[in-house]
Amino acid sequence: MRPARWLTAAAFIAPLALTAALGACAPNVAPLNLSGAPKPVAGYDWFLNEDPDEPRLSYGLAQSDDVPLSLMCAPGSGKIGLSLAADQANGRLAITLESGGDTETYGARVEAADMHDGVHLIASAPVADPVIQRFGRLGWLAVWDGDQRAMMAAQPGSEGRAAEFLALCR
Hints:
The structure is a single chain. The chain is of the alpha+beta class and 170 residues long. It has one domain. The protein contains 4 helices and 10 strands, in the order H-H-E-E-E-E-E-E-E-E-H-E-E-H. The strands form 2 sheets. Strands 1-2-3-4-8-7 form a 6-stranded antiparallel sheet. Strands 6-5-9-10 form a 4-stranded antiparallel sheet. Helix 1 crosses helix 2 and helix 3 packs across helix 4. The chain starts with a helix and ends with a helix. The relative contact order is 0.20. The N terminus is likely disordered.
């Protein structure tokens, strides 16, 4: 599934206009730079926990409960679990991820959140999916919610954490 192809095309044709549009959507939406890759959001990064029983890669604000997306796996399973924080489910029963132009939607279930007001959308994805593989190479993901895209880009020097995490899950 490739939602809003025109938006992706616009990112390469008019990056400044897209930056302004995405910046108005939410404070944690990263603008695109001229190469088409998202810029990191100040303070937010991908954090890797190499727990031998359940490695976890989480995107969020360091030393806080502000973690919009977590990925976890059983080592060697070939699958990752996705946990997306949301204010409310609002009938949303899927998580749509994008990385570098590859997009995939995963069916999700809703669970009550214990760390914040709201819910978590919980899904599963094969490590071999193109969007997951692209994330491993590029170090950024975007989460789509309707026609809005929240960018989750690594800070300089931590782009390799996605590949490290995926290697643990294969």
